[in-house]
Amino acid sequence: MKIFKIVLLLLLSYNGIAQQFTVSAKVKNIGKDGLHSIALTPDFRKHADANLAGIRIEDSNGKEVPYFLSNPGKSRIESRFTKFPMLLKRVATDSVTQIFIDHVSAEKWNEVTLAISNTDAVKTYSISGSNDNSEWFGLVNNQTLSGLYSHADTTVYKTLSMPVNTYKYLKIEFLDKTSLPINITAAGTITGKPITSELQEIPDAHVKITEMILEKKTRVTITFNNPAIIDRMVFDIKAPQLYKRSAALFLSRSRTRRKKATTYLEQEFAFDLTSSGKNVIDDLNLIENKIVIDIDNKDNEPLEIASVKLYHTPVTIIANLKSDENYTVMAGDLTLQEPDYDLKNFKNQIPAILPQATLSKAELTTGRAKGINADKSPWIMWACISIGAIILSYFCYSLVRDMKNSENQPHK
Asked: Long-range contacts of range 264-273, CB-CB < 8 Å, 24 or more positions apart?
């Protein structure tokens, strides 16, 4: 059994070191210890696996560093905290803290947001309203305020709901019988508006325009050196002044029939190019080596296409880094699955704005094997297999020999 364990350990150890990465880049500009945002450069992404599951970060000792990917999508919400005048904050008795807020406007409102210094306390609170800052009327009684602890920031924003009202003044009372008072630094409201994320142009997009005269069509063929993530396509058309053309986007596909592989174009969707629009096609969500667009000219002259540009939504890595450490980001190993780190469970507690580290120029690793030279890894594999075969052969020979010896021994 020990022999089998040795063989298994050899094979498993080879499997562990044969992680083949295709691209790597050093992390630069780590100003201080803590969480950082690292934008993946287009040059890095084009050599990585399309779904980015094979990304790993290692420190100078080869130890994996936890991270999660942040993709802001096509749009996000830009939040803004607008403060109300806080008239007074006082300890009314030994067990009650009061804050008084001026609503300023006489509009209806049904919530107020408090900026609270980071704490693990849990509080019971009540809210009352007034029009003259003298006579008070109840709105909320004995509600619980919790979740005031943050792993990443010194301030937590909590929104308190209340019945719709038009009171000019608000009084919030916190009970301090079972815990020390909490530090409320501001009161106000959070508003948000959608803003479009900045997209990155995809490099190395090779555009070829072909006029198919007999079919009365223009074919635009776009190829990439590596599979590209495509979210937006923009046409810049110089002439004619007025036009409206139907177009269709095709993807290259392959199939096998009678053991023969053939390639064909499959239509993905149709769209229009028109002089009255911006000719921007969004939400493509494609990962392709090649795309083809056919434009139907009918009896018109072909469009004069100045350029066709493609873009993808930027992706960033969020990781906890040390300023005195050296880190390498690697990707492209198709055998790896997306890692499961604890850090991803705290996404909602991490500030939207983080210090930004950067990646150096991407370097091709041509199949880097973790911990060994990639050129030697096949030899190690065959060495492990050969050693295993020799050991198993010897084990089988010994087993057969022992069986024969036992058969030749006289029975008692």
From this structure: 265/292, 270/246, 271/247, 272/244, 272/245, 272/246, 272/247, 273/235, 273/237, 273/243, 273/244, 273/245, 273/247, 273/303
